[in-house]
Amino acid sequence: MKKIIVIIVLIAVAFIPFSGCRKIADHIFQRDTSIVSSCRIAKIFMTNDFSPEVRTGIVYYNDHNDPDSVIFDFEGSSAGVALMYFTYDGQHRLVEFRKDYSHQPGDYYIKHTYVYENGIAVRDTIRGRIAGQWTEVNNIHYDLNGRIIKVTRRVIEVDNSPWEEEVEPFTFAYDASGNLGGETSDYDTKINFLRTNKVWMFTHRDYSMNNLLGATSYNDYGLPLAFEEQKRPFFLVYGVSSLEYECSAK
User: Fold this and answer.
1) pTM, entire model
2) Nearest 10 degrees: CA dihedral of 151, 154, 157, 158?
3) Domain 2-247 belongs to what architecture?
4) What would the pLDDT profile of 20-61 be if each residue is shown by its tens digit?
C-alpha cells in the first residue's frame, strides 16, 4: 500500500505548477480564469527519465476548441504516459481525463472522472493501474476567483478490495501577482502557457498568470516557446523542452 500511495503523491505533485506579475487590484473572477483565445498549443516537445530522446506530442481539439487528445510518438509502459484523452458532456464540460501508457488493453492507465454541482466540478474520482490498482476520491475547493485552492483526498479501493484512508490534502496559494506559490519562486512577466485553455488550468490545478522563470524565447503573443534544460515546466506529467502553437492573425 505504501508503494501505491507514493505513486499517487508523485503523480499529483507533477500537476502542481507555478508562474508571475500583476497588481492585486486586477484580481477579479473573469481575469483569474480567462484564457488567451488567440493561440492554442499544437505540439509538445519533451524528455523524460526513460529516454534521452526528444518526444513529440500532438494536441488535437474538438469543434469547441477544447483538447480532445494528446498523442505522443512512442508507446509502451516503460516509456510513460503516451496517450491522453478528454471527454465532455452535452454542456461541453470535462467529465473524464484519461492517461494511457499504450494502445494495449489492460495496460497501465490513470483515469479522472469529474462530478459537477451547480455547474462546477466538485469531485474528481481517480482510478489507476500502476504497480497495483487503486481508487481515490478528491473533493475540489475553490476561491472566489474560481481557482482551485484545496483538494481533499481519500483512498477507497486498493487492488480490488475496499479501503478507507484519508490522504494528505493538496493546497494551492496564490500571491498578489496571481501566481501559484509566488512568494517562494521567481516568474517572468509573460503569459502562462496553461492559460491558452481552461482545461489545462483545471487539470493542472494551476491558474497562474505568468511562467516560472526558465523560458528562453517567446512568440509574438508573449507565450513561451523553449525552456532551459534545468528549468523545464511540467505539462501533462512531463518536463517540456519546447512548445509549438497555432495562433490567429494579430
Assistant:
1) 0.84
2) 90
3) Beta Barrel (2.40)
4) 343 333 333 345 677 788 999 999 998 766 667 788 999 999
The C-alpha atoms of residue 78 and residue 40 are separated, in whole angstroms, by 30
Give the largest CA-CA distance in the chain: 55
d(CA 236, CA 250): 28
Phi/psi at 206 (5° precision): -145, 115
Do residues 224 and 217 touch, judged by C-beta distance below 8 A?
Answer: yes
Query: Residue 162 is placed in which grid cell?
Result: 475496499
Structural domain boundaries of the chain? 2-247
CB-CB neighbours of 149 under 10 Å? 18
Element (H, E) at 98: strand 94-100
Instruction: Give the integer Cα–Cα distance in Å for 243 and 59.
Output: 11
* Helix/strand/coil percentages in the chain, nearest 5: 15, 45, 40
